[in-house]
């Protein structure tokens, strides 16, 4: 109907939705199968982080590393595949990375400036 | 691009935005007066009626707004030309949705920064720290209140992840010209989202009323505050865990509440999609709206990916 | 030639006269003369105060406190305690002691009785005062700061008893020299305390049943409007023999398109008109502030102190959110599609939604005036005052709710503009060929996009605290500085949001009226982008006195000073543009030049404030008020008035009257500088901002400021008249009265329904200029 969506569709048909082989345990041509495997990975990582926390490790740094790391990994899965960023033109991920600098200011300035905050700004920079 | 386009470029006239805003104002006036008005300034309950009228007005205006799209084949009613490479590589509305998601990123980052600030300013509870008689000098996180009933949070996480998958499957069903499957997948998404909200509200209620741990307190001396690992809860939460109990409560409920509100708004939009899919069907030619909704929905899931570990697990 | 020399000389003499007329700051010993009879009531405790400028005036350093029950029962006796603190007897050591202070107290109803030797009631009088002042009197009342006495309530408990207290705080240097009568350097103050009976009600200073000021205004306008409407409709019905339905239908046919339009030109017009209307409302609030500050006043003299708090709060919030931002969006809405060659914005319905949130949000914002007091928390809404019980309720809640709506409006509009400007530019309009006004809007909406959501969340947290009892700001362990961080993370980019479009307008006007493209276009673009990004880091300079992390403050100070560099680049580029061009000095150009001067002054005081040691001294004084009014009025407002004069022909097809324009400029420029420049002096002398009164020594300067502020307000009426007059009687403008070369001048004035029938292609500026020769 509208030319714009038509154009977009033909754009889709030109690239096949190829998932990285390691994600899908081998090549797959069926995008549905690929996405189901992505979901399986997400479930796996979720179970992993719950199990890790239930262990109640003593080290604060280790806990943070696990939680934050797994969150970033799940974020990568959702963004790249569910949100289609892997197959999207560069405009999309460039748009999505715009807030990163501003987030850093927000987290550092609002989050870490109470005196003696876990890693307050002054300590980090050796003041 | 010549004169045939003139009638396509006539400007739309619609009263829906105006009515939506008037209704929103009425809703806010009702809400504020109902919670802070009256002689004693604690609320004039008669104004809840005004609040409801405002809400009804908002829904009516919303329906009027989507009326324009309801009868179109796709939701794209205007051909927008573009003349510049790089910026034209995705559709206008998709670009608009991504820009909108940037604002949502700032919203949740603000909530998380405030949480980080408060959490970092106090040591976490641990038996070897002096936390004060009522544990006011330590952070006793919501995670410890939830720990014994963590399974519900995990179920919610899976529900949301699965709903993201079903939205993607709905989109691909449309691309593969299977409109009935589209409606089914969207309906499953709705059910999963509604289940998420219901379970969350139930969890909240349990936490609020101190129901989340063993009645006999597992042999704990609550006042002495034994190790949290034994599922004893500090006297801080002896009367339940709610947003006016402590800052831990405020940050927990407001952050998860904002997330829940976003799920709720998503469900409303999803309702429209299901109705439209049922009526006209989405197919290879028209499925952009599902994609746009999907971006929003995946973002909501993404926020949960960060909220879950830092509020439910840690 | 001679004529213009004479005019120049006249202007120069006026400036010299104005500068020399600025008062030196000595107080005028006229003093206060209330019309009541007793000695103390006529002159305060000034008999203790001979030979010093402070003789007849109360001093706000002296704090009076009367401890009393929360209400009284008829006929009961209560023991009340009067306490005086502050003033010179707080400064150790007393020069001669131990005289501390004294008081006089009277009450409007009920009976006063002393209960010890320190207080006595002179014969045949009904007031109490301290002992120790008279020969042969016992007691030590002179050497105290606290006195107790009894008060017996009247027989009716639906009365309100008003206690009038005069108290003084001495420095003890006069005991020997003046026969016990006191000497220079003592302070005194007076105060009123209200005690309601069990069945009485204290209403905000007004008698029971009387309407509050804002209610009177609104009802008054309502009555006038309804009367006019009846007269107009009735006249039409009679004169043109139409039925009531027919008249209403024709009005409806006129108004319905305005309610339902999604055309960027109409929405732009709506934004501009709405913005200017709220600008006048905010201006009236500003004049109320200046009238309150005409001279030192006690609570309730003109405004009560709490009403004053509401006044400056609503003044700030209105000016920023209801005036400046809508005017910016208005011009952006109207011009951006024209300048980039697009037919409309990307999402027209969303555009309409963004507009209508504005008047409706404004109504919600002002609802406080009908419910006992508008929000009184300052436009910055600092916690824990804003989250606590002392802030007006529900006025503050309305203030929060209104701003939530306005924030949503700005966010959605920002999304709309970003998508439009990045995707819908005509062929040839590459990003680096866009007019500078378009660039300024692009950077502005980028800032809006990222900063407004932070403020929205902060407001939601505040609302949660106030409504649901959460503890973000209001609990014992809460951190009020969190609010400051969240507010200023938004608040600082916000002020760049209101100034960057002004820069854009300046670039347009200066280049057109210098008959050449802007000097250094590329550096102008990069300067704006740099300002935009740095603005997110510098917000901490509003928090230098909070005891924030030293590293944070250090980084902020450096970056704040750094942001002056790109701003300076822009100013020098404008100057370079004019130097290399042939300048036309008409009204838009004069306002632009005025902007450069006043904005530069404001910018310099900004650099002064960027330095932490200086800021610690100037924070919360009138120096800051002067700074931001110089950049906001001198920067934003002047530019947009210039913008109105510049684009009015395009929007309406008529030219504005040039002579009235120049008169408007002269009056505005002179009165603005006269009103706001002395605020620097007053601030350096220590006058705090947001206080409803001030030290009496600054009275003359404040009177000067207030008078010129009123004249500044009156000068704007010239502008209003010009706008309306020219709409009817202005000269036809034609497509391009100024010979500009950006795309908006390529279409008719006003532009047709469909702004562009065919999307044009942008030519080079020089080619365009050649075409019009």
Automatic annotation (TrEMBL), chain A:
Keyword Translocase listed: no
Residue stretches spanning the membrane: 35-54, 60-79, 91-112
GO cellular component: plasma membrane
InterPro entries for this protein: Caa3_sub_IV, Cyt_c_oxidase_su4_prok
The keyword Transmembrane is annotated on this UniProt entry: yes
Location, primary (coarse class): membrane
Topological category with respect to the lipid bilayer: Multi-pass membrane protein
One Pfam family linked to the record: COX4_pro
Keywords for the protein's UniProt record, in alphabetical order: Cell membrane, Membrane, Transmembrane, Transmembrane helix
Compartments where located: Cell membrane
Domain of life of the native organism: Archaea
The protein's name in its UniProt record: Cytochrome C oxidase subunit IV
UniProt organism field: Marine Group III euryarchaeote CG-Epi1
Taxonomy of the source species: Archaea, Methanobacteriati, Thermoplasmatota, Thermoplasmata, Candidatus Thermoprofundales
TrEMBL record, chain B:
Family annotation (InterPro entries): Cyt_c/ubiquinol_Oxase_su3 (IPR024791), Cyt_c_oxidase-like_su3 (IPR000298), Cyt_c_oxidase_su3-like_sf (IPR035973), Cyt_c_oxidase_su3_a-hlx (IPR013833)
A GO term, aspect molecular function: cytochrome-c oxidase activity
Superkingdom in the source lineage: Archaea
One cellular-component annotation, GO: plasma membrane
Keyword match Transmembrane: yes
Record localization: Cell membrane
UniProt cross-references to PROSITE patterns, sorted A to Z: COX3
This protein's UniProt keywords: Cell membrane, Membrane, Transmembrane, Transmembrane helix
Gene Ontology annotations of biological process type: aerobic electron transport chain
UniProt xrefs under PANTHER family: CYTOCHROME BO(3) UBIQUINOL OXIDASE SUBUNIT 3 (PTHR11403:SF2), CYTOCHROME C OXIDASE SUBUNIT III (PTHR11403)
Assigned protein family: Belongs to the cytochrome c oxidase subunit 3 family.
Entry protein name: Heme-copper oxidase subunit III family profile domain-containing protein
Native source organism of the sequence: Marine Group III euryarchaeote CG-Epi1
From TrEMBL, chain C:
Primary localisation category: membrane
Residue intervals passing through the bilayer: 217-238, 270-292, 312-332, 353-372, 404-424, 436-464, 486-506, 518-539, 551-569, 590-612, 624-648, 660-679, 704-724
Region of interest (Disordered), ranges: 124-145
Protein name: cytochrome-c oxidase
Subcellular location: Membrane
One Pfam family it belongs to: COX1
Gene source species: Marine Group III euryarchaeote CG-Epi1
Metabolic or biological pathway, per its Swiss-Prot or TrEMBL entry: Energy metabolism; oxidative phosphorylation
NCBIfam families: choice_anch_V (NF041895), CtaD_CoxA (TIGR02891)
